[in-house]
Task: inverse folding
């Protein structure tokens, strides 16, 4: 009788809530609709840990990075794979993206003062990497054995 | 691509009923908008109040539509949601477009007002 009661109290006290998973990993085909699905999955995973504005920034930066790989990295082939991983750390969301497409041009990562395309000339492109450089921190790129690895961090307020 | 156009007070109001204007739909949007905007109207107002996400491809498509309008006609925007407004602000393209808070603020009488009058 006593043992039964003890069991019950242990069950009541045991924590029901599981800790939030800290690592997000998703590997997917390099096409625009798969990018949408990946963005939705990443957003769903971190939505409760970020403000609505931070969620918007996360979605925008990831969309620019991933769509750039679809449009330019794999432009000459009909298929390819993208791997995206996101880890929550003390400074924010640490993101890394890898693909087997063509190398990223240097100009994407470094563009002087990063002012972006001039609005007066009514540009239709060139906004993507400007937005990435503007919103992401600690942007780093490495290419090894035909594989691109891009890493960056999105700062969070907390 | 759900685009709905109506003539209102001499303006062509085009409402994009999609949650996303992104790389997956940018070209389709551009082509359909160009076709719709070929109708003669001095003002073309694009209502983006349904759009929750815009990326650089979507922004490029909107700029392209504006450039395709005949001289003297301008593309105006209405109803930018926070994430969409941010893309225009960061790229400074908000300086290029006339942006209204909603189609009511674009100086158009609403249907309700017209009925009441």
Result:
């Amino acid at each position: 009788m006593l043992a039964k009661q003890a069991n019950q109290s242990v069950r009541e006290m045991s924590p029901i809530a599981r800790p939030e998973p800290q690592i997000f990993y998703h590997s997917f085909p390099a096409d625009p609709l798969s990018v949408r699905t990946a963005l939705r999955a990443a957003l769903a995973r971190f939505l409760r840990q970020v403000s609505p504005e931070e969620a918007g920034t996360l979605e925008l930066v990831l969309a620019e990075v991933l769509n750039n790989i679809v449009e330019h990295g794999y432009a000459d082939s009909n298929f390819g794979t993208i791997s995206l991983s996101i880890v929550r750390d003390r400074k924010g969301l640490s993101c890394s993206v890898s693909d087997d497409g063509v190398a990223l041009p240097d100009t994407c990562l470094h563009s002087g003062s990063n002012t972006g395309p001039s609005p007066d000339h009514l540009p239709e492109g060139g906004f993507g990497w400007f937005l990435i450089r503007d919103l992401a921190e600690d942007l780093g790129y490495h290419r090894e054995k035909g594989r691109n690895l891009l890493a960056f961090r999105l700062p969070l307020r907390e | 691509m759900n685009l709905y156009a109506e003539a209102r007070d001499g303006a062509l109001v085009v409402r994009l009923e999609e949650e996303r204007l992104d790389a997956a739909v940018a070209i389709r949007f551009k082509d359909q908008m160009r076709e719709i905007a070929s109708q003669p109207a001095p003002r073309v107002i694009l209502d983006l109040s349904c759009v929750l996400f815009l990326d650089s491809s979507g922004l490029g498509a909107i700029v392209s539509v504006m450039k395709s309008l005949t001289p003297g006609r301008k593309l105006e925007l209405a109803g930018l949601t926070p994430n969409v407004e941010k893309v225009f602000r960061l790229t400074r393209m908000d300086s290029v477009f006339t942006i209204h808070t909603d189609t009511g603020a674009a100086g158009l009488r609403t249907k309700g007002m017209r009925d009441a009058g």
